[in-house]
Design brief:
Elements: E1 2-6, H1 10-21, E2 27-31, H2 35-43, E3 49-50, H3 53-59, E4 62-65, H4 69-83, E5 89-92, H5 98-104, E6 113-118, E7 139-143, H6 150-162, E8 166-170, H7 172-200, H8 204-210, H9 213-219, H10 226-235, H11 237-259, H12 263-274, H13 276-280
Parallel strand pairs: 1-2, 1-4, 2-3, 4-5, 5-6, 7-8
Antiparallel strand pairs: 6-7
């Protein structure tokens, strides 16, 4: 199979590593608007060749979109135009789904598209961040699968099986609500904590000296790429604003109890939060 990966960063590059190693792909074409990333992907062997989007789509059996979600939404209709009435398949790996659902919903080639979100990643970006086994034993959310042609869905499902991923099925709106609460708010709180510390602790030495494991793990996501996350927050703004309001409400509860020196109240809400251990352990 000839596969085009649009976006040769962490997700696209890591896909390339394992799809080649596990012999799902015979030839991988890289497409990236960043010439530096494109060159690195070629020189490091992540891809066999690089090409323009049009040239790559023409030569490929499967096209994988691993660009920022705003870009996925822009180029998906163009790709669907080019693969209409063919056996080619296009799949996106974006963290939000309502945007691609909207632009693809009434397209005559909608059946050739599979919307997916692999729940995997790190705080690093670019082709040099690509690693093998990134997706092993992680969940992948497949959205609106009933709108995809059976053969297109089966090809993408087979790809995720090769990556040892657990498939979960949702509709686009349900997916976007859940990721706002589970994933997107984690990044916002991490960015916010980093900004708070940087504003207060203006000397790097103090941060390095006092930063313990808790701080490092909480703020790790603040290293994430702005070009990836700003479009995610904007595209999923309805649910993201809802979860921010919920988070502020909980922070205000802590603020009130600390201000009132309410030790028992604090213990109660901390123990309530501790229940998350039963789910995540």
């Amino acid at each position: 199979m000839v596969i085009t990966i649009v976006g040769t960063g962490l997700i696209g590059g890591s896909l390339a590593v394992d799809l080649r190693k596990r012999k799902f792909a015979d030839w991988i074409i890289g497409v990236d608007t960043n010439p530096h990333h494109q060159n690195i992907a070629k020189l490091t062997g992540l891809v066999d060749e690089t090409d323009t989007l049009d040239g790559a789509v023409a030569k490929s059996d499967m096209i994988i979109l691993a660009t920022p979600v705003s870009v996925n939404g822009d180029i998906l209709p163009l790709i669907l135009d080019r693969i209409k009435d063919t056996s080619k398949v296009v799949a996106d790996m974006g963290s939000t789904k309502s945007g691609v659902a909207m632009v693809s919903g009434k397209h005559p080639a909608r059946g050739r598209f599979v919307a997916a979100h692999p729940m995997a990643g790190t705080e690093f970006s670019g082709p040099l961040a690509a690693i093998g086994k990134l997706f092993d034993y992680k969940n992948v959310i497949i959205c609106d699968g009933e709108l995809s042609d059976k053969d297109a869905l089966e090809k993408v499902e087979k790809m995720f099986d090769m990556l040892n991923m657990k498939k979960v099925y949702m509709n686009s709106s349900e997916h976007d609500m859940h990721v706002a609460y589970i994933s997107h708010i984690s990044h916002i709180t991490s960015f916010s904590l980093a900004l708070s510390v940087l504003e207060k602790e203006r000397e790097d030495e103090n941060i390095l000296t006092l930063a313990g494991g808790g701080f490092e793990s909480t703020v790790r996501l603040a290293k994430s790429n702005s070009e990836t996350w700003a479009p995610i927050f904007l595209e999923n703004s309805g649910y993201v604003l809802e979860v921010i309001d919920t988070c502020i409400e909980k922070m205000n509860t802590f603020k009130k109890m600390i201000g009132n020196r309410d030790a028992e109240g604090l213990k109660d809400i901390i123990e309530e939060a501790n229940k998350i251990r039963k789910i995540l352990n």
